[in-house]
Structures are given as structure tokens and as C-alpha cells.
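Preliminary data (for renewal application), glutathione complex.
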Amino acid sequence: MRARMAIAYAGVRVRLREVVLKDKPPALLEASPKGTVPVLIDVDGAVIEESRDVMRWALSQNDPENWLGASGLDDPLILSCDDEFKPWLDRYKYAVRFPEQSEAWYRSHAESFLSALDQKLECAPFLGGSRVNAADIAIFPFIRQFANVDLSWWNTHPYPNVATWLQQLIGSDLFKAVMKKYPQWRDHDEDIAFPL
Ligand SMILES: N[C@@H](CCC(=O)N[C@@H](CS)C(=O)NCC(=O)O)C(=O)O
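Predicted structure:
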């Protein structure tokens, strides 16, 4: 989602191939054997395999509202989200695949990042201050995933500043626009223009 949001915001046109993870097309694995999405193939054939790098690729071409600001995509909060929070989130989301510990145990480890985020959002509505920036967009899709794992837990364990921030970003026109459903792409199907 963060890669799609950066592409749509920058107004860079790409050809979209919607992958169903349970049915990965051979073309995906040929381009990027690690088999995770998103993957972006640039016009010169360069393969970009990390969503943060796709964001960087899009924003370096056009950044009309200065999302990159001073710290860009190497902001310590983004790094902490990707390197520390995301691995716990994945274990929390797919706790059945990681039976060594309980779902609640994985969640409690992920929570340290939420506390830090909540504290940061005490002083300003967005991570960079009064306006949305790259850190908000890079981080909020993962917080949305975290909340959605167990909404009843999320609703009774308030991180009030994070909750308000999350609602605002989920309600944004940009997020709604990229959440559109696309048909699954299979080898040899036509690509779809993105953004429409
Ligand atoms: N580091 C990657 C992680 C992306 C990631 O975890 N993608 C998930 C889908 S949201 C995936 O492709 N999982 C592969 C699978 O479930 O087979 C990035 O941010 O680009």
C-alpha cells in the first residue's frame, strides 16, 4: 500500500500486475525470486524489491508536497518500523505459523513501537509535524494491519494518538484511491495502468 500511495501521489504512471500471494505468477519469481510483493521493474530493467525503495523511486521523481522533507525515507522511525516492528507484526498476524510463542506474546513485543509512536504523536497530528510526510505513509499501513489482526483487542487497548492518526490516514482520498480492487494478473494477461 505504501508503494502504491507514493506512486499515486507522485503521479508516476506504472503498469500494474495484481498478484495473489497464494498463486504467484512465474513472471514474479523470475523477476524477484524472494517472492514478496511489491516488486517494481524500471524501464531500464532494474528490479526494485522493497516497498520503501519503491517509495524512494517514486518520490525522487516527483514530490509535490515535500513528503521527503529533511529525513526522507531514512528517518529512524521508519527504520525502526521496518526492522523491529514489522517482524513482530508478521509473527502476530501469522501466529499459527510461529507456534513457539502465543499471539499475545508477539503482540506485546510489537507494542513497544506503538508506545513510541503514540508518544511522538502527542505533540503533533503527523509524524513530521502538522502535515503528512513520508514517515506517515511508510508506517501507517503496518499499523492498520496490526489493528486489524484483532480489532476488539485494538479497540480496548487505546493508543489514542495513534488511533486518531490512523483514522485520518485511512480516511484520506489517497488511501481510498489506492485501495481499489484490481483483478488478479496471470502470465500473459494485459497489464493495467496505475494510477487510473
Ligand atoms: N520487505 C518487503 C516486505 C513485503 C511483504 O512482507 N510483503 C508480503 C505481502 S504484504 C508478501 O509479499 N509476502 C509473501 C507471501 O506471503 O508469500 C517490503 O516491504 O517490500
